[in-house]
From TrEMBL:
GO terms for molecular function: GTP binding. InterPro entries: GTP-bd, P-loop_NTPase. Residues 40-163 form the G domain. It comes from the Bacteria. This is G domain-containing protein.
Length: 280
């Protein structure tokens, strides 16, 4: 069972010796936080690993991992984890007519507003398949469905993440023992990041900052494959989340240490995650 971080914070406030006015202010801020919700939309082409990513980040089988086209999400699925709401959209790429229906559902959700009149969706996480040579469906989704319908502040409401880094070159140049890409694969992935960034900028004028990672996966009866760069993915999700809402993620994250261990080491992402959550 997940620990209720907000309740723990309340207990700490109540248990500490402090001026009562300070205590009242802290409890007031905490009450506001309890009423806040984060709405995260996760989208991408069929087979890109949306469900695996959701499950890896939040440590529970909140999303079904499809094994065939028939088991793919056909409606926008809603998962509620305390104050975190995840909207798992249907995968695109199964035909023009079906894609048009799914796109309309996504656009309607992007225009939906909360009880305060603000746009409901805080962030759209678009997942790409690093091993796919044809990213046409993904670019169609990003350039023509997501970005035009993000409202104001578009560049801070979309995060593009390239999944399945371990099989980007059909499994070649992936160091299984160290769970990280070797230099040839790393260069391939970095070039893909540059290419995706350039193509989106050319089509929309919006500059995104794609990252690559591997969500890992867990099939029934088998051991969990360790993720790679999951901590980097979370770090960037937090950077695109309003400061006052970041702690909401903290109480729902996967508690298995091994899930966050392996990364590109370009930054101490776990330290950055902690600092991001504390910036309130």
């Amino acid at each position: 069972m997940k620990q209720n971080l907000l309740k723990d914070i309340e207990n700490i406030i109540m248990g500490q010796k402090m001026d009562e006015k300070v205590r009242e202010k802290l409890l007031g801020n905490l009450l506001k936080l309890k009423k806040q919700k984060i709405n995260l939309m996760v989208t991408g082409a069929t087979g890109c690993g949306k469900s695996s990513t959701i499950n890896a980040l939040f440590g529970m089988e909140v999303a079904r991992i499809g094994t065939s086209a028939d088991t793919e999400t056909m409606e926008i699925e809603k998962y509620e984890l305390d104050n975190l709401v995840i909207w798992d959209t249907p995968g695109l790429g199964d035909g023009k007519e079906i894609d048009n229906k799914h796109s309309k559902k996504m656009i309607d959700k992007l225009y939906e507003k909360d009880e305060n009149g603000n746009l409901l969706i805080d962030l759209v996480l678009v997942i790409l398949d690093s091993g796919s040579r044809d990213l046409g469906t993904a670019y169609e989704l990003i350039n023509n469905v997501i970005i035009p319908n993000l409202g104001e502040n578009k560049k801070n409401r979309i995060l593009v993440a390239i999944n399945q880094a371990d099989v980007a070159m059909k499994g070649k140049y992936w160091n299984e023992q160290e769970n990280r890409p070797e230099s040839i694969l790393k260069e391939f992935l970095n070039n893909k990041v540059i290419s995706v960034k350039r193509r989106i900028k050319e089509a929309t004028g919006i500059e995104v900052k794609p990252i690559y990672y591997s969500a890992g996966y867990k099939e029934e009866g088998e051991l969990q494959q360790k993720p790679y760069n999951l901590s980097k993915l979370l770090y960037y999700i937090l950077q695109y989340t309003p400061e006052e809402k970041r702690v909401i993620y903290a109480q729902n994250l996967n508690k298995e240490e091994v899930m966050w261990k392996d990364s590109d080491d370009l930054k101490d992402y776990r330290k950055g995650i902690l600092e991001s959550v504390l910036e309130v």
